[in-house]
Amino acid sequence: xxxxxxxxxxxxxxxxxxxxxxxxxxxxxxxxxxxxxxxxxxxxxxxxxxxxxxxxxxxxxxxxxxxxxxxxxxxxxxxxxxxxxxxxxxxxxxxxxxxxxxxxxxxxxxxxxxxxxxxxxxxxxxxxxxxxxxxxxx
Amino acid sequence: xxxxxxxxxxxxxxxxxxxxxxxxxxxxxxxxxxxxxxxxxxxxxxxxxxxxxxxxxxxxxxxxxxxxxxxxxxxxxxxxxxxxxxxxxxxxxxxxxxxxxxxxxxxxxxxxxxxxxxxxxxxxxxxxxxxxxxxxxxxxxxxxxxxxxxxxxxxxxxxxxxxxxxxxxxxxxxxxxxxxxxxxxxxxxxxxxxxxxxxxxxxxxxxxxxxxxxxxxxxxxxxxxxxxxxxxxxxxxxxxxxxxxxxxxxxxxxxxxxxxxxxxxxxxxxxxxxxxxxxxxxxxxxxxxxxxxxxxxxxxxxxxxxxxxxxxxxxxxxxxxxxxxxxxxxxxxxxxxxxxxxxxxxxxxxxxxxxxxxxxxxxxxxxxxxxxxxxxxxxxxxxxxxxxxxxxxxxxxxxxxxxxxxxxxxxxxxxxxxxxxxxxxxxxxxxxxxxxxxxxxxxxxxxxxxxxxxxxxxxxxxxxxxxxxxxxxxxxxxxxxxxxxxxxxxxxxxxxxxxxxxxxxxxxxxxxxxxxxxxxxxxxxxxxxxxxxxxxxxxxxxxxxxxxxxxxxxxxxxxxxxxxxxxxxxxxxxxxxxxxxxxxxxxxxxxxxxxxxxxxxxxxxxxxxxxxxxxxxxxxxxxxxxxxxxxxxxxxxxxxxxxxxxxxxxxxxxxxxxxxxxxxxxxxxxxxxxxxxxxxxxxxxxxxxxxxxxxxxxxxxxxxxxxxxxxxxxxxxxxxxxxxxxxxxxxxxxxxxxxxxxxxxxxxxxxxxxxxxxxxxxxxxxxxxxxxxxxxxxxxxxxxxxxxxxxxxxxxxxxxxxxxxxxxxxxxxxxxxxxxxxxxxxxxxxxxxxxxxxxxxxxxxxxxxxxxxxxxxxxxxxxxxxxxxxxxxxxxxxxxxxxxxxxxxxxxxxxxxxxxxxxxxxxxxxxxxxxxxxxx
Lengths: 138, 920
Known about the structure:
The structure holds 2 protein chains of 2 kinds.
Chain A (H helix, E strand, L loop, with lengths): L3 E6 L3 H11 L5 E7 L5 H8 L3 E5 L7 H11 L4 E6 L4 H10 L3 E4 L4 H12 L4 E2 L1 H9 L1
Chain B lengths: L4 E6 L3 H11 L4 E6 L2 H10 L4 E5 L7 H10 L8 E5 L3 H8 L6 E5 L4 H80 L3 E6 L4 E4 L1 H7 L3 H4 L4 H4 E7 L20 H4 L3 E8 L5 E11 L8 E8 L1 H22 L3 H15 L4 E7 L6 E8 L8 H11 L2 E2 L4 H9 L3 E3 L11 H6 L4 E9 L2 E10 L7 H88 L4 H28 L14 H14 L5 E6 L11 H22 L9 E10 L14 E8 L6 H6 L18 H10 L3 E7 L3 E9 L17 E6 L3 H12 L5 E3 L8 E7 L5 H9 L5 E5 L2 H8 L1 E2 L8 E2 L7 E3 L6 H17 L9 H6 L7
Parallel strand pairs in B: 1-2, 1-3, 3-4, 4-5, 18-19, 23-24, 23-25, 25-26, 26-29
Antiparallel strand pairs in B: 6-7, 6-11, 8-9, 9-10, 10-11, 12-13, 12-17, 13-14, 15-16, 16-17, 19-20, 20-22, 21-22, 27-28
């Protein structure tokens, strides 16, 4: 089974530069790269054609969920998973409505994150436990 | 000489005319020839003719025709015509028709004699007629002259008669005027109000008018002969009219009046002696009667009674005085004594009283009595009269005050002893009081009280007195109203100021609360941002640490990595705590909030500790395994954060007394309390979580402890306070169905105890599905998003969800069915299954048909539409939003859980009674 290619869209360079350490070493994954600014995001993702796009929720000046909607429509081969610092069930719902298959939190355990990425690749919808709690309770 | 006579000869033959002229040639005639009718008529226009000789036979207009024309004209109709004919008999007959005298005729050949004779007759007749006419004309003129003279005579006569009549009328008018004048003078003397007396040169009265007699109390006849000086009682003053310059003041009783003085008119005031010995004040004018400077025949004295004027002056002075007093007074109580004093003085009243309406409004009571010290030298009887009034009450209509009240206008009691409605009549009489009067104090129509004045004499009511009394009464009433209004205004102002003060305080409190809420929001925003940023950095740190861990490291480096991991772990907990603190209170809307205290504490402890002042220790004592508390974690975080903050401040403020920088300890502890005794909580064996926040600080004074939960109460200088306020904490805990209590002792510390109800367990807990082989949820949906989301939600509870594509009915507690699979029969068949609980239909128009179709699965046997209150079917539409789907899912699964896991539920009643929120 070929490794799952992952691309990160985030303006946080420290995180972005750390991600290859996580994904490049793991045989289950392949690190495609990092997109810092969202200029021609669709075109660039189409070109890279990752299996999974990990996307930050709040990047400056970007309507993230609109972007997810476009991605879902134009790059059906790439599955979008949000990677957020916010625990908000309304963000999670908006993400799913836009076509994302998951909403993970940056506080999530690393093993859990990797496991969820695998499951998304299989076609499941995944959430951070923190977000799940919010989804169940409110 | 007679005027010449003209004769007209008419013939077309000049020869004949010549013949006629020859025959008639005479110095007496003037002959005029005409050869045609036209010439003849022309000639007749120019002058008068005595006769016309006319030839009948003429060409053109014949003689006869001409004659007819001549006779037809008024001017010429009487001129005689002599026709000349030629023997024609018929012509003669015609001519006769003209009548004798008018015409004549002669047959040709002409006899000159006859012609001359006939013409002569005509001329003679003409002449005589002319003479007669002249004579007649003279006679007419004479008659006219006579008539003219007669008319002139008549006119002259008429004029004379008119003058005689005028003279007579004038005379009569003069007579009448004289009589009228005499009458007027007489009437004037009788009618004037002034007294008028004439005195002779000896100063004895020679005539008096009725007014003079009346004013002096005599009959007119009695006064005749009385000396002037006998009447003069005294002279008050001498007027300063210019006639009086140089006049010596007269002195009563000096008898002789200096002639020089009497030769001038004099004006003055005096007292005149009346017949009965009394005197009246008068103003007089003395006018001497004399022709020369040194002749004195007597004098006329005119005098006017000044009694009314003087009285009016005094009344005016009284009004003025009252007005002045009221203008400067602050209230009726202060003004009343002065008013009464001045009224007594100016009205010659020895005593006066003020009566006001009693508090009850039904009687008048006396508010004030005044006895004038000059007019009423202290007398036991007057004292007795006034003292008695002190304990008297008058109803409307009773006594003088009551009568004033009843009528609302001034009342005069002319003679007190004879008045039937004067309770103190006997006392008044003993005190020498004869008259009494009073007036109401009224403001508009409102009666406020009455002023009563007493006099030593009987009182005659007069309009002026009543008007004055009314005026003073109104003025006093207006004053009462004014002072009352001022007082009310003062009251209003004070109330307003109080209101403003209260509002200001409320505003300050509200502002303070707002400030606290803002602080909460600010801290929340700050914490959220901080937590977010920390998470953003902690993930790469954790990734790097994980990477390092896998590398081969020296033991020293491995130790370093471990230390960094611990630090990162701490930071991770701090970030979680910050997130809990940051949770926007508006978004705290958990349906079944609960907090696992041990887990919660591990998350918030770091944040709590980090925000405490240096030297304050925080210790936790929260065991694992406690049941969850029924409060949202973020609410609990905020509440406890407040308590910890307050404790921290209390400790920091007194920490100097301890050793080595130790400022004290805050402990957060929790236990489960089986013996909950919350008021109104129902069963006493209900379980509670008791969470306490205690410190070993200075404690609170009693009064602070009692009030610290009151809104807006604060012991702190506000700028220093960092707590959100205990009232908010109490509100949050109350809102969660719990309570908060305080236990504090000065010098020992403070302990807040939060008693929280135990929360409902989670809708799904790991391993709750009794038979893992069964699916909790079965789906027949193609929408990947819906399927994935449902799977994820169900999986989170460790239960199973499955996408099911079979034909029959799935074996699950919830069946989510989409599109064509959602037939009414299949849904009904599914619901008829013993283990099934709910169906969720995702369909549009088609779903509506399914929803409205009746199904016979109900245990009651009655077919009912799927979309009914007792139906377990939910319709969400073809592509529900994730939010709608989630809400429905959570509600249904919670309901299923509430029924007791996998227990077979087959009863409709139980379903309804379970309270699951079913909505179409």
